[in-house]
Amino acid sequence: MSQREDSDREHAAAGLHPVTGTAADILALLRAWDAAPEEPEPLVLRTSGSTGRPKSVVLSRAALRASAHATHDRLGGAGQWVLNLPPTYVAGLQVLFRSVVAGTDPVLQTGSLAETVAEMTGPRRHVSLVPTQLRRLLDDPAELAALARFDAVLVGGGPLRPEVRATAETAGVRVVQTYGMAETCGGCVYDGHPLDGVEVRTGGDGQVLLRGSVLFDGYADDPDRTATVMDDGWLRTQDLGRLDEDGRLWILGRADSVVISGGVNVPAEAVEAMIEQHPEVEDVVVVGVPDEEWGERVTAVVAARRPLGLAELRDLVEPRAWAPRALVATDAMPHLPNGKVDRRAARALADQQVRP
Question: Is 89 helix (H, G, I), strand (E, B) or coil?
Fold first, then answer.
């Protein structure tokens, strides 16, 4: 197939039900969708399925507008955005829709971030990244200097290491850590505090619940699945968290990522955070692999700059009962198109190498 034919096919496939197409296609569709005189049909966004079965999330114009306006208010005003995330996932889609609401033209990153910033014309500048992108940019002085030219660098889609944030902020980068999901039109809690119009609480099981104008309308053609996550207007996120005395939300991990090993509940993401403190570790995913003795064997899948031993990783973990009992080394952690770590692929890798 020629490049022209391939381009024609991409444009023919562009749509909002579900969201498909190139960034330019989707931007044009969003502009028409936002300008419609009547409330248009909600768009449908397919999720990555990083922790389970993919979903088709229904988002109304009212919810996306509420999210965009709340974001601009929190950041001190609208601005021009850089798009370097897939536009068919919520983070990339929001870069485009916030641009529509702000009346600005987003800049598509095709080269380095430093080159992209040089193309920007807006007085205020924003970019949205996943933690892996931020960490890699910090290794390049030119890219780090480019990051410091943004009014806000939103980082979401996964845990952000404190030392990575500290390195960025020391260099003058204005980091905003976001928490949210497709069901909330993307980030709805910034640096632990909900955006205007968003409410946060935790249930008796420690699960984070969210409510407000940014919530989705449900899952397309799947009312039963919708009912399992909604509780009297509150979205049950499947994330565990706590609210401190200042009302700041701290995410502790996924409710479905607890590994039960030898009768001990091991929070996988807490163990990951401890292992990430090793200076040679680039990415880590902790999973449970079926084991006759332990029920589940705590296994660390690790991408590192040099070969690491299980013993030195176990020494990083407290309590000792949480420490991994198996190590799977990989040259590069599998990632999804939206930049998130592919936890399902990492689990499959562990199953292949550890299960007897």
Answer: coil
DSSP 232-294: TTEEEEEEEEEE-TT--EEEEEEGGGEEEETTEEEEHHHHHHHHTTSTTEEEEEEEEEEETTT
Which H/E stretch holds residue 209? Answer: strand 207-212
CA atoms of 302 and 281, how far apart (whole Å): 7
8 A C-beta contact, residue 162 and residue 276: no
If one counts every other C-beta atom within 10 angstroms of the C-beta of residue 287, the result is 25
As a whole number of angstroms, the distance between CA 218 and CA 131 comes to 28
Q: Do 256 and 51 form a contact (C-beta atoms < 8 A)? A: yes
pTM of the model: 0.81
| Residue 343 DSSP class | H
Q: Could you tell me if 175 and 155 are in contact, meaning their C-beta atoms sit under 8 angstroms apart?
A: yes
Whether residue 319 has a cis bond before it, omega within 30° of 0: yes
Residues 6 or more apart in contact with residue 153 via CB below 8 angstroms: 126, 127, 129, 134, 147, 168, 173, 174, 175, 176
- Residue 283 to residue 302: CA distance in whole angstroms: 6
**pLDDT, tens digit (0-9, with 9 covering 90-100), for 273-314:** 899 889 999 999 999 999 888 889 999 999 999 999 999 999
CB count in 10 Å sphere of residue 171 = 13
Residues in Cβ contact with 32 at an 8 Å cutoff, skipping those fewer than 6 apart = none
For the stretch 188-211, pLDDT in tens is: 999 999 999 999 999 988 899 999
Identify the H or E element spanning 26: helix 23-35
Q: At what angle do helices 90-102 and 61-75 cross, to 10 degrees?
A: 80
pLDDT digits (tens, 9 = 90+) for 94-139: 999 999 999 999 999 999 999 999 999 988 999 999 988 998 899 9
Structure letter (DSSP) for residue 105: -
Look up residue 320 and give its DSSP letter. G
| DSSP H or E stretch at residue 83 | strand 80-83
